[in-house]
Amino acid sequence: MKIIQITDLHLGCDKNYSTFEVNTYQSARMIVNHIAESHKDLDALVISGDISDDATKESYSNLLDITDKIDTDIYLMPGNHDSIKEIKECASSNKVNSELYFTHGNWIYFMFNTKKDGSPNGFLKQNEIEIFRDMLSKNKDKYFMVFLHHHPVEIGSPTMDKMIIENANILLDLIQQNELIRGVSWGHIHNVFETDLNNAKLFSTPSTCYQSKPKSKTFIIDTGETPGYRVIYFSSNGNLETQIIRVS
Fold first, then answer.
1. Is 131 helix (H, G, I), strand (E, B) or coil?
2. 134 Cβ partners below 8 Å, 6+ apart?
3. Coil, helix or strand for 161?
4. How confident is the model at residue 94 (pLDDT cuts 50, 70, 90)?
């Protein structure tokens, strides 16, 4: 199984929309075109939130335009900038969906909605946690990969760490207790962070538009780093390998 994760597209209703001197539509199109051309064997594309920057219907139409060349299933999950209503409408396409999880072989891929209404912070929903716990208990023969928008562990950046998943300890405790959870990946922070917990690899994926300097005291744009995406390979024995690919 080969999954590519992209995140933090920050699309606007206008294809000419720019933020931090980056045209987000053109930058996302560049990334997705690179994926379409370089990864013909792709099994799924996961888009982990902040798809839109203005939560407009047009911004999600722009997403469908950008991903038109992707010939595989696309999974959407919300970030703090997104409209859940518009994501659900966007996910009515044949190849686009916003399901909570999907299964392939002996892997279960679970995509939490960490959006907290009225706040840039992340928050795990009790009902989703219960579903996840139930799946862990009933699928002892499968491995688990978790996708989130917000980060569940501190990344050493005071500004971004204020927007961490507020109740991330629930997920971290489950990772400590269950060796079948093998990976956790998120967006939101616009840079790359990697660590380990129990049997799981924890990591972030860079944005398709502007990047931020890791471990900076305030949010600083990293003009020396280019947009990118993460490729994740899943083996039937529970191992996963991953790499970041930057595009300029």
1. helix
2. none
3. helix
4. confident
Where in the sequence is the domain holding 173, given as residue range(s)?
Answer: 2-246
* Cα distance between residue 170 and residue 182, in whole Å: 16
The answer to whether 147 and 187 are in contact (CB under 8 A) is no
- For residue 155, what are its two tokens? 């990344």
Q: pLDDT tens across 185-230, in order?
A: 999 999 999 999 999 999 999 999 999 999 998 889 999 999 999 9
Q: How far apart are CA 185 and CA 145, in angstroms?
A: 8
Output the pTM of the full model: 0.95
Burial class from Cβ neighbours inside 10 Å (0-12, 13-18, 19+) for residue 141 reads exposed
Residue 237 belongs to domain with CATH number: 3.60.21.10
Q: Number of folded domains in the chain?
A: 1
DSSP output for 216-246: -SS--B-TTS--EEEEEEE-TTS-EEEEEEE
What pLDDT shows up at residue 92?
83
